[in-house]
What we know:
- The protein has 214 residues and is mainly beta.
- Helix content is 0%, strand content 70%.
- The protein has strands spanning 6-20, 26-27, 33-34, 36-37, 39-51, 56-71, 74-78, 81-106, 109-133, 142-151, 159-170, 175-184, 201-210, 212-213.
- The radius of gyration is 22 Å and the shape is elongated.
- The protein starts with 5 loop residues before the first strand and ends with a strand.
Amino acid sequence: SRSKGKWSLQPYAGGVVSSITNTGAYDLDDGTELKKKMTVGYIIGGEAEYQFAKKFSVAAGLNYTTQGCGWDDFSYWEDGVRVKIKNQSDILGYIKVPIVANCYLFKGFAVKAGVQFGFLVNSKFYAHGTADMDILGDGVRREVDLYGTVDMKDQYKKFDFSIPVGVSYQFKVPITIDARYQIGLTKLNKESFVGVKDSKNSVFTLTIGYKFAL
């Protein structure tokens, strides 16, 4: 119900597709260019909404979001061993506080915009590799999995400010689908270096929530 003066609470969860702007491709020693690509993450949280008019409301939320940026897979030879590297990505975890205004155009359909405060809680560079090696000494090469993570938290600023804009639809049952694009406005990287300058978050989220009246 969207009766004037009513409060509601909505827990939600969903998926994230994201990238980091102004983080370009980088070149390997052999001249191979690895292009940037988007990464997939998740979001979980909830929000409280106050309906101050029949068609207008304001909502404040709290969520945890994983986002970041990835690069192309590649392979190389080292000491006669072929190494394949894939799923390279910087994964950033944020606690976020969105505050948005909703305008209900018809039925359960709303457009929304607001402000969002993000606080970085973890950041890691991740890569998964495989190598064809004779690990048993019998002359047979076998594929060996190689995993690696590097803590990148000191490379990024702790605070992020963004503008969320989006749409949502609430069905007759209290299930809501919400799509938002978060426009990052603050610089992420503490220092600029080759290929990275004034990087900002670019994040799309799609969530499903259950709204109930308080």
